[in-house]
C-alpha cells in the first residue's frame, strides 16, 4: 500500500532468491528448511497438502538473525514461569530473568507477592566469584531466604542459566537437601540456554522435571477424582486464553482439574494424573508429559484447537465423544448457544477481512492452529512456519494449509523480510522482533505470541476479540498515510 | 454470555463479568489448594511491616526484582549507534532474542542483532567455528559496514578469546582483512548493562584509535551513555550544541536508529555515528561523557590516547544542564549563547510558577546510577525532597557521591541511599517509610499498585506507556518535560483524591 510493489513473486522463486544471498555452506543448510506445500501423496485424502519434507529442529546457522530463543526461555519463560504459587529462581546472572520478566502475559488470579509470584523476578544474580567458586551454597541460602520471606509459596523451581551447567554446579543435590530442610517441593531444571537448538528442548526438560520432581518425588495427592475430570495442557493463559477455554469445557460438563501451566498451582500439577483425560493445546511444548501420564497413569490424551468457530466446534465434539451422551448433548447445546455470537462476529468482520492474505511465523502450535480461524473469517494463509517445530509438527500442519503455501522453518530475519516483500501479504502475524520491521514496510501486523497485549483469542469469547483485532490491524487508516501527498504518483 | 459482536470485550473487561468471576472462585475453592483469605491478608499486612523490612533487607543471596540488566544489552545498544553496524553476540542464541525484544518493546522500533548460536558442541570445543561461519554469514546477508562483537556469559565461562577468533576468522576469509570488527568481552556476571555499554564503547574506540597518529583539533567528543530517552535527548543535545556553534562528534548516536520513519521501507541501518567520524574523533581535544558510570573505562582510554576528559551525571534540570553547557564551554572556548540563557530562564520560570505544588513533595528514585543522581538533583531544585535513592547497579563510590549531593542541599536531608538493593527492598522501605512519588521505569508499577504511590516513568525501560522517549529529558527543554510529568502526576492525584461527587469534592478545583 505504502510502497509500489510489483505483482507477488511465486514462492519457489522467492526461495531461490533468498538462498542465493548466503555463502555456500549456509545456503546448503538453509535450503532444507524452505519449501512449498505440495499436494497430498496418493491415498492420503484426509490431508489437504503436505509440507513435512521441511527439515526442522536443527541448529540455527550462526551469524544470522534467528528468531529463536533458548532452553531457558522454553522452561522458565513458557512452561514453569506461569505456575503461580511457586517461586521460580532464574539461577545464574541477572539478564535472563530480567528480559523474561512479565513479558508473556500469563494471566493469573491471586495476591502477588503473597500467594502468587508470576510477575516477579527472582534471581541468584551471579557474580564472578560465583562462577569461580560455584553457586550451590548461594542457591541453598536463596531457597532459605525465599522460604522466610514468602511463607505461602508452595514450592520452588531452579531455572538454570548457561553458566550453571558449564561450571558443574549440582543443583539436584541442593534441591534434595533443601526439600528436607524447608519441606516444600523443590524442582531443579537443567534448562541452560546452550542446550539444544531452540526453546523446544527447554519445554522437554521442563516436562521431565515435572515427571521427576513433582510426580515422582513431590507430595502424594489426596484428590478424589470424578468421571468428568480433565486437564488443560499446554495453555499458558496468554491474555486469559486458558480461561476462555475452561469456560467452554465446564459448560459441556467437564471438571478442569489442572490448568497447565497458565494460572496453575502446584496442587493442580500434582492432581493431574488422576484426571480421566488430558486435553492438549500446545502439542509441541507439553506432549512429553502427556505421553508419560498415559504410560504410567493410564490418562489418555488428545489434541484440541480452540481458535475459530470451525475448530472450536470440531474440538468440542471430539472431546465430548470421549465421554457419555450427557456431555455430547451438552457440547451440541454449547455450540448452538454460541452460534449467534459467531454469526454476529462473522457478519460484522468477514466483509472487512474476506480475501486478505496472511503470513505467519510463530512458535508452538500457532502456525497451524490459527489457520482455520483466519479461514473462518474468509482470509487466506500464503506462508507459515515455526520457530522450533519438530517433524511431527510439520506433519500436523498438512491438515490445515493449502497447496502452494510457502513453508519456512527457523526462518531468518533476512528471509522473512524478503518473503514479505515478495508476497506482499495484507497481514503478518509474528513476534515483537518482527513487528516493527514489517510495519515500517507498510504492512499490518499482529503479535501472535502475545496477541499484541490483547486477548484472549481462544474459545468463542476469544474469537470475537481475534476478529476485532485482525480488523483493527488491517483496516486502520494509518496504512494509507505512509506516502506524503507531494510524493504520491499521479 | 458476556461477549458480543456489538461491543467486543477483551481481557480488560471480559474477566470481570460474573461468569468468569464465578469460574475463578470455583477454581480457587476446588482445585488450587490456595491459602485462606485470612492467611493471605495476614501475610500481605506482614510484608508491609518493619519486621518484614528487617528480614528483607538482611537478604544475602536472593535478588528480587533488580533494577538492572546484564552487560551484553548495553553492548548491543552502544554498537547500534554506529553507522551500518551489526551487533554480533558470540554465545548462546536466546540472549540475542532477549536484547532485541527488550529494545523493541521500549522504543517500539526494530532492533537488529545476530548471534553465533552456540550450543552444546561449542560448549565443549569452543565457539571458533561459530565465529568463522557466523561472521561470513552476517557479512553476506546483512551487508554491514562494521560488525561489533560482544559476548554472552556462556562464551565467557568457556573462555573464548574474541581477539584471536576474529583474527582467525579473517584469515579464513569470513570478512575482508580490512573490514572493521571491533569487539568487547561483556560477561553477564560482571556489572550490568552500563558496564556493557562502557566496554563496547571502549572496544570500538580502541579498534579505530589504537596506534593512530593524533593531531589535535578543536573538536570534542560527546558520549551520551546508556539512555532510554536517547532518541530525543541526543537531538536536544545536538540542538543546544548547534546554538553554541560547537564542533563535536557524538560517539554512539542511536537517535535515528531507534526512530525510523514509517514510509514503506524498513531501514536496518539508519543514522548512527559515521565510521570516518569515529576515526577522526581520535584527534578531538577532549571527550565528554554525559554519564560517568557508563564510561569509566572508555574515558580512561581516551586519556591514554592524550585527550582531556570530563564526565557528568546525566544533564537534567537546571544545574545539571548548566554544568553541561559550562563544561562544553570550558572545553571548547565557546560562550553559552543568549538563546540558551533564555531557555534556562523559561525553565526556571515554569518551576517558579509551580513551586507551591512541588515544595516539600517526597520522592523515591531508582534506576541507573547516573540517572538517579541527576533526578535527585533536579528534584531538590524544585523544592522536592528525595527520601530514597536506589540503584541496583550502584557501587559504594556511587553511594558516597550521592550522599555528598544530598548533603549539599537542605532538601536532601534525611534521604537514604541504597546501593546494590533491588525493587523488593524498595517496596519494604516504602511500605514502612513512604514517599509521595516514585520515579523510575515501568517495573515500578508493582510498587505503585501495592503501596498506592504514583509512579513517574522517566528512565529505561518503559514498556507500558508509549513514546515517552520521543520527548527529551536532557537540557532545559527536557527539564520542562520532566517537570510537566511530575506536575501532571501531582495534579492527577489531587483530582483523584477530591473526585467523588458529593463526598470528597470540596477541593475539586478548576484553577490551580
Automatic annotation (TrEMBL), chain B:
Top-level class of the enzyme under EC nomenclature: oxidoreductase
Pfam families in alphabetical order: DUF3364 (PF11844), Oxidored_nitro (PF00148)
Cofactor binding comment, as recorded: Binds 1 [8Fe-7S] cluster per heterodimer.
Residue stretches making up the Nitrogenase/oxidoreductase component domain: 70-490
Enzyme Commission number: 1.18.6.1
One MF annotation (Gene Ontology) recorded for this entry: nitrogenase activity
Coiled-coil stretches: none
CDD domains: Nitrogenase_MoFe_beta
UniProt domain Nitrogenase molybdenum-iron protein beta chain N-terminal: residue ranges: 1-56
Cofactor(s) of this protein: [8Fe-7S] cluster
Keyword annotations: ATP-binding, Iron, Iron-sulfur, Metal-binding, Nitrogen fixation, Nucleotide-binding, Oxidoreductase
Catalytic reaction equation(s): N2 + 8 reduced [2Fe-2S]-[ferredoxin] + 16 ATP + 16 H2O = H2 + 8 oxidized [2Fe-2S]-[ferredoxin] + 2 NH4(+) + 16 ADP + 16 phosphate + 6 H(+)
Function statement: This molybdenum-iron protein is part of the nitrogenase complex that catalyzes the key enzymatic reactions in nitrogen fixation.
Family statement: Belongs to the NifD/NifK/NifE/NifN family.
Assembly behavior: Tetramer of two alpha and two beta chains. Forms complex with the iron protein (nitrogenase component 2).
Name this polypeptide is given: Nitrogenase molybdenum-iron protein beta chain
Annotated organism of origin: Rhodovulum sulfidophilum (Rhodobacter sulfidophilus)
